[in-house]
Specification:
This protein has 221 residues and is α+β, with helices and mostly antiparallel strands. The protein folds into two domains: 85 residues; 96 residues, Beta Barrel (Thrombin, subunit H). It contains four helices and nine strands; from the N terminus they run ββαααβββββββα. The strands form two sheets. Strands 4-5-6-9-8-7 form a six-stranded antiparallel β-barrel. It has a two-stranded antiparallel sheet with strand order 1-2.
Length: 221
């Protein structure tokens, strides 16, 4: 029996969308599809992970050696936020990310979180405050009158004539109030004038310089 085609009931063929063009990773010789960005470059998940983890680790190591200046803080925060948001987005894409890659992306988020916590401790600001600096180790004791170059709620940069090693413990004494605080040396370098500068973080003190109190006073006036 022949098929009868009734006028008006013939369905038009479904229109298919043209396949979207896939953007390739811009890393030379890589043929994978791009799914993230490094600066303005489109990259695949693998190259995003490799470059971002390396950058986070490099910044974390730099932060341990020398605190960043206040002017750099916003750029660091933007970098961390960008890494975190892209890693979280990629980790939620079941179509393109396998279990192992998802684990690596979540590890990246954790590394970024640790770096962010380190940044939140406090940025150092320029300040010249007179202090006494002492080393009280047996056989290595000394004392000198000096001054700070930068201060923060958790430490300071100090001009120091004595040679000290990172990890050493010193005692800071404020010449006015006479307050004392133990601090750990985190870096030692020379400034543009050839003076030895050390960076210290407090071991048993918070707000040794009374910065929080001064900030609150400034906000209420």
């Amino acid at each position: 029996m022949e098929e009868q085609i009734i006028a008006g009931e013939v369905e038009a063929p479904a229109q298919t969308e043209a396949p979207a063009q896939t953007t390739r990773c811009t890393v030379e010789t890589c043929l994978s599809a791009a799914s993230a960005k490094l600066d303005t470059n489109d990259v695949c998940v693998e190259h995003f992970l490799l470059a971002t983890v390396r950058e986070i680790d490099d910044r974390a190591a730099r932060l341990k050696q020398q605190p960043i200046e206040a002017g750099e803080m916003q750029a660091w925060k933007e970098f961390i936020a960008n890494c975190t948001s892209q890693a979280q987005r990629l980790a939620q894409d079941d179509r393109t990310v396998d279990k192992r890659t998802r684990t690596r992306l979540l590890d990246l988020v954790l590394r970024a979180s640790h770096l962010s916590q380190s940044l939140r401790r406090s940025a150092r600001v320029p300040a010249t405050l007179p202090i006494w600096l002492r080393r009280e180790d047996p056989g290595k004791s000394w004392e000198e009158e000096t001054w700070t170059s930068t201060v923060s709620e958790h430490g300071a940069g100090i001009v120091c004539r004595h040679l000290v090693e990172p990890g050493s413990t010193l005692v800071l004494c404020r010449r006015g109030p006479g307050d004392r605080a133990r601090a750990r040396v985190v870096y030692c370098r020379y400034d543009s004038d050839g003076r030895r500068q050390i960076g210290v973080e407090f071991i048993d003190q918070n707000n040794f310089w009374e910065l929080s109190q001064k900030s609150r006073s400034a906000k209420t006036t």
